[in-house]
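Sample intake sheet
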Amino acid sequence: MRLLRTAITRNLLRLGAIIALYILAGIGGSLIPANADWEEPDTGILLYVHDNGIHTGLVLPRENAIADWSDLVRPEHLGDPRRASDHLLFGWGDRGFYLETPTWGDLKASTALAALIGSEGTLLHVDHIGTPRPGENLRPLRVAPEQYRRIASAIRARFALDAEGRSQPIAGYGANDVFYEAHGRYNALRTCNEWTGSVLRDAGVRMGAWTPFNFGVMRWLRSHAVDTD
């Protein structure tokens, strides 16, 4: 029995050390800037970065001169098509986590562990939202048109299309959100927040070099409102 307790204690200590190293690495990666010389332009296209306390996502207009989402994200995909709005909040993550955790009260340790270990099953989560109201959890970001094009293209590339080139919707949590089958492997290195960070990084926006946590994304963004004209 003593040997068993010793083995359990050692394994718990190892697990704790791994978790601590992961958190420290995530903090460190979030503090190291990519595209360090980038500055937000005075004119350009306004988008937003959303943070719900754990997950981050990108808020884009449903349609503008550069990107039109009407071929992939359609009102009839919603529980209530009348809830379709002029701004879309895009998030990407583990399929099991999304579908089995409609609220944080439903979160199970087994679901979180399975997501961190790794899964090929991923989804895009799209919320139709009204006019964005900037604040601590919804931060504005203005980018050049070419950067916006790259951001929109990166999101579009995540949609897993059927044989006829159509997006594949799955019922969301409520009347104004929907899931879509997606490409990509989710794991502890490629989290939902790292996806948000990588989309912005790859577009040339200043962002943490590795952003597995929500705060690693949001720390690089202004928390005050900007002129939306």
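Comment: The chain has one domain: 32-218. The longest strand covers residues 87-94.
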